[in-house]
Structure formats: C-alpha cells, structure tokens
Amino acid sequence: MKYVTEYRDAALVKGVIGEIRRTAERPWTMMGICGGQTHAIVRHGLDQLLPPEIELVHGPGCPVCVTPLELIDKALAIAARPDVIFCSYGDMLRVPGSGRDLSSVKAQGGDVRVVYSPLDAVEIARQNPDKQVVFFAIGFETTAPANVMSVLQAQRLGLKNYSILVSHVRVPPAIQAILSSPENRVQGFLLAGHVCAVMGYWEYPSLVQKFNVPMVVTGFEPLDIVQGILQTVRLLEADRLEVANAYSRAVTFEGNLPAQKTIQRVFMECDRKWRGIGMIPMSGWCLRPEFDAFNAEKRFDVEAIQAEESPLCIAGQILQGLKKPHQCSAFGTICNPEHPLGATMVSSEGACAAYYQYGRMLSAEHVA
Ligand code: SF4
C-alpha cells in the first residue's frame, strides 16, 4: 500500500537507527506525545532498538485516557436515560467510570450505539425525532473538525434532539504544563503528526523558545517514528532550538486553515481537567454560548457531577512521562484489559494497554 508499505521497511528503519547511534553522543529523554505513536513504538520494539543514550517516555496524547472521570460519569448518567440514544466511538465503551462503564449501561438496557463518525449520530437523530441523541465528542484537535461539523449539520437540518457531550483537549497547553513541572525530564518532543495535519505547527515555536526544548512533527509508521527521533537527536546534539517537520507528506506549517476556521466558529478555548493530571488552564475546547442548544451537559443538567480516581492508578504520572506502566503496582495484576482500573489500560492508544498487549510486563529491564 503506497505511503504505508515503504514506511514499514525494516532495512530502512535499521539504517535510520544506525544513524541515530552514530549521532547520539549524550543521553537524551524525549516524549512521543501521541498514544498512537506509543503503540507503534512498543508494537515494533523501536525503543529496544535505540542506543542506551535515548530514552523514550510516553505522553498524554490519548484522548480516551485523559477524558476526566466525572465526564465518564456524566456520560453514564445521560446514557442510562430511557429517552436517550447515546452514540460514541467504540473505544469509550469499556472505559471505567466511578462504578461501571458504557458497556454495562448498554447491557442494562440503555440505548448505547457505536458510530464511526459524529455525522452518523446526526443521521440517527434525524431518523429518531422522538429521542434525544447525544454524541460523546472527545478528542484532541484531530477529531474536532468532524465534531463541530456535526453541530453545524444538526443546526442546518433544524434538529432539536441532537447534542454533544464535549471533552476536547489541545496539545500545546499540555506540553506547556509538562515543561512547567519541576519534575519534568523531557528534553525533546515528537509532535503528533495527525494533530499537526489539522493545526499545522505554528503554535509550537514559541514553546520551543520559552522552554529551550526542540520539537519534531512525527508520523506513525516505524520509519516515520525513527526519522522523528533522528531529527530530534540532531537538534539536541547541535543545541538547535526549532520545530522540524519529519512528516511533510501530511503536514504544513499553517495546517488545514478551513478546518481551523470551522473549529473556531463552534468551539472556544476553555480550562479543561485531564484525567489523572488535573486542570490545565485553557487546554480545552468548549461549545460557544451560541451553541448551548447542542450542549449535552446543559441539556441534561449533569454539570455538577464530580468523581474521585482510584488511588492505585498512576496513569497521570505515566501520561506526563514520569513513570512507565510496569512501575504501577496494579499493572497486570488487579488492573488488566478485562478489569481495568484506569483508561490507559483499555484505550487502543493507552500506554498501559500497549505494554500489556505486547508483553512488556515481562521485560521491564528493556524499558526502565
Ligand atoms: S496499570 Fe491500570 S491502575 Fe496502573 S496506571 Fe495503568 S491503568 Fe492505572
């Protein structure tokens, strides 16, 4: 398959790894922001091929993982209502709330449906005028265009029975929070290529200058990832503070301007709580007040719901690059994909799920 097969070529990957070995002269810690990159790194064992000077840590770029517990509880409360059809991406169904998950609400008779696009949820609303249809609009910048388009489409169709439960987060404020922490160990970032395909990378140079940390826009195939690592090592070794683009087949500096404009029309920046991490100022997108009619939190009066995380779960530290999954006392024992304590164990982009799925609990010495 064009643009995929050649980026999985083992010989090319080994060649780039060799160049990383020749380039890295000092120890460097770098963070892959995106959970999709984490899974590719662990699945292909890329971190185990790197020289000992390079440590990769995992970032918060897993939308399912950072959706706050109380928002899951709000989703559960709305989905359990008999007048509601609750639509979500499949990833969210097994994410634990305080006591149960969306799958158990469905098993108990709730009308919970998996959709592949928020526009499918709009169509369900059109076909079911006697029901309230709610879409669970979570994600980073990547999914925002489709989510805001669903609101505009519902408005255009005059639908009064469609709303979205929003938990949108943004990468630049998360990077700022990580770099502002006194515990920060990250010296370079692999930026998420799909986020930058939408937003460009014009938001990052000011962060690079403020925190003296280079960043490289990086894709998702093995060759993309090792090329992103190589570029980061080159910038670090040369003390060059800049944003490089190792994913130019998909990303431009400006990004997708019509998509950005559409997002701004429907969403505005707001404070957002991240699961396990806490509140990060202006790190989210919320519906603008003129779209209150499409705001499920207001429609169903669930804004006051609060929740407490399991004290055992250290996902917040994992998502900030401070710990790795096998360092959690619950990993693989009382927390596993069948019985997850935290979202990072069930999400397809979660670091704990990646370590479990690819057997890393048996090889902690390779990743410590
Ligand atoms: S292994 Fe489970 S309890 Fe531990 S950090 Fe991961 S999700 Fe949380």
Describe the structure.
Helix content is 39%, strand content 19%. The chain is an alpha/beta fold and 368 residues long. Strands 4-3-5-6-11-10 form a 6-stranded mixed sheet, sandwiched between helices. The radius of gyration is 21 Å and the shape is globular. It binds iron/sulfur cluster (SF4). Iron/sulfur cluster is lined by residues 312-315, 318, 325, 328, 330-331, 335, 340-342, 344-345, 352. Iron/sulfur cluster binds at residues 312-315, 318, 325, 328, 330-331, 335, 340-342, 344-345, 352.
Oligomer class: single chain
Strand coverage percent: 15-25%
**Number of extended strands:** 11
- Main sheet characteristics: 6 strands, mixed
Provide the low-confidence segments as ranges. Answer: 363-368
Structural class: alpha/beta
**Share of residues in helices:** 25-40%
Q: Note the overall shape.
A: globular
Tell me the series of helices and strands, N- to C-terminal. Answer: HEHHEHHEHEHEHEHEHHEHEHEEHHHH
**Number of separate helices:** 17
Ions, cofactors and other ligands present here are: iron/sulfur cluster
Task: Present the secondary structure layout.
Blueprint: H1 10-23, E1 28-34, H2 35-43, H3 46-49, E2 54-61, H4 63-66, H5 69-79, E3 84-88, H6 102-107, E4 111-114, H7 118-127, E5 132-139, H8 144-157, E6 162-169, H9 171-180, E7 188-192, H10 193-199, H11 205-211, E8 215-218, H12 222-237, E9 243-245, H13 257-266, E10 267-274, E11 278-287, H14 296-299, H15 315-319, H16 351-357, H17 364-367
Parallel strand pairs: 1-2, 1-7, 3-4, 3-5, 5-6, 7-8, 8-9
Antiparallel strand pairs: 6-11, 10-11
Helix pairs in contact: 1-12, 7-8, 8-13
The protein binds iron/sulfur cluster (SF4).
